[in-house]
User: Fold this.
Amino acid sequence: MALPVTLHKEDSIGLVIIDNPPVNALSQAVRQGLVECLDAALGDDDVEAIVIACEGRTFIAGADISEFDKPPLEPHLPDVLRRLDEASKPIIAALHGTTLGGGFETALACHYRVASRGTKVGFPEVTLGLIPGAGGTQRLPRIVDVETALDMITSGKPRRVEDLSGIVDRIVDDGLREATRSFAQALLEAPESRTVSISGREVDKPADQEGLFRQWREKIAKKYRGQISPRCCIDAIENALLLPFEEGLKKEREMFLECRGSEQSRALRHAFFAEREAVRADEYAEEPVEIRSAGIVGAGTMGSGIALCLAAAGIPVVLLEADWDNLQRGLDAIHSRLDRNVKQGRINEAQSRERRDLIRGTCDYADLGDVDLVIEAAFENMQVKQEIFSRLGEITREDAILATNTSYLDINRIADAVIHPERVLGMHFFSPADVMKLLEVVRADRTDDRSMATVITMGKRIGKIPVPVGHCYGFAGNRMYACYGREGQMLLLEGATPVQIDAAMENWGMAMGPMSVLDMSGLDISYKARKQNPDRPEDPLYFRPADMLVEMDRIGRKSGAGFYRYDLKTGDKHEDPEVTELIRREAGSLGVEQRTISEEEIQNRMIDALINEGARILEEDIARSAGDLDVIWINGYGFPRYRGGPMFYARQTGLDRALQRIEGYRERFGDHYWKPSEFLKRSANAGEWEK
Ligand code: 3HC
Assistant:
């Protein structure tokens, strides 16, 4: 097997090349190889300077995350980097691609850095529940100002080298390796500036150090509710100002190891790999086809959001509406969204113009005659959708893929309207479509592999996380959501208040409480969906509080009242004692006895409802894996990423314990909702989701 690190001598330069595809992660073999090549180069009298460069698409993109669940193996990264730092010959890193985490730490431990223009550097450790663990928190504030270090390390967001002063010594447009060699050669000709270690520098201390760190701690507490590693990042950076380098380094390593062993980091690492696993399109027997143009039917909120996603990826879009007024409204919404993005600095004027030009409006179906893909985003009504698909079947090319953005309608029936139903599938975007990452790709009974592979590949191209799911009412995400929501509604009848339930779930880590979500998305929308559910339970308690509010015209935020009351001018939300009273009376007339309910019961019942339904979905092969369901919940429903998704959470906290709780609910509330899934039972025995 080829060695992942090799040393090549070119005149007086020792070139250390790392070649560990796909991203040159710092596996044990790479660390070992680095030590050996460095020792060889340092011990070779002919070598006067050392260049470290990488093959492939990027310089080192970090530690090898897949090693974090195994016992650590020597040489440890901080020891490797110490060798660089203390080397007697100048060491220059040649950076390109995404130089992240341990890769950026390696670069900072070198004496100099040369980078290709556009190279991104950053510390994404916080997104994995970690802190930089090989000197990043100590070296970065010694080379950039403290506030920039705080921002980069606590946000995890990479920055382009051009936007950061002081990080690199030279930026080149092309010929990185040759330019780095020339840089090294020039150094050798000016021997006084040979080895300059960042570790030897003083931190440029800010004027109000205490105030700055206090501010960041407050900011982080709000942004990362309940998470450990962001706080550790700040503590470690503060140490860089308070302690000598070596001591700061030691403390950083201690915190890194503590974070690495935490449940939160395990969960975040699971999310990282589950997301990459979910979007694989290599299981399909047919190759994906490139989507070069697309049509969208419906220029409402979803349709225009989807158009923006496609245009952002450079795909020309024909946006179709039934009449010119609606079309103009959709186009206006798109243009104002683009203007807002420019104002917020997300895109520049040229990008905005380019995207605007890529979206062409029409009211004529014939304009969709030559597109590769059509996404229908019209009303959630079977007849409307069938009519649209029947037209699409007539005017589109036979190989054009036809997708519906329905949230719950039967895609098999929609496909009946089309001559080649194997090209029909669901593309379930989440609102706002240009922001939310999740895309459920729904395979209907006749959908072929080519359509699945194509849409998943295109989904990735437009920046989504496309997760394939099978066909059933609500698909995977909304089907689980219905059980979670049902339990919330039952808890209301049993005596919990909307505020109490929202607080319980937000404290648990959900982005927003379930009653606030219902109010925000419109109680009438979910009411209508429930009415159309062919499997709706014959239970007078089922979603009774929500249905009752809709029947009283309290349809949520847009009407000024739902589970809460809203000030329509300011948007402020207020608790509404009238709702609690209405629910109390309704519970009485339905024979439900009210009681005091603990926060723990609310949290357990709502999450257990997700776990049990998730298990059923796996049993029925609606989802391929527990990891796919986690990805869906993290990216579409505000499930806390640091808990890894509902299925990961269940496994971590014990499938047997989840099963026991569910058996307990069954005894209390009956079989109706709480029959434990057989799949959960089997998995609880195995201690692991069986697939
Ligand atoms: N360790 C192990 N595998 C990694 C990896 C890593 N650090 N980074 C990426 N991979 C794997 C992915 O799992 C994927 O594998 P697959 O093809 O089998 O699914 C493959 O590399 C390609 O990754 P992406 O699909 O994500 O490729 P992209 O081109 O979209 O993105 C990237 C490349 C920007 C480098 C992205 O992979 C990424 O962000 N990686 C993580 C970087 C990171 O978090 N680094 C810090 C690690 S922690 C650390 O360094 C601790 C240190 O302080 C001690």
Q: What stands out?
A: The chain has a mean pLDDT of 96. The first strand starts at residue 5 and ends at 10. Residues 599-619 form the longest helix (21 residues). The two ends are 32 Å apart (CA to CA).
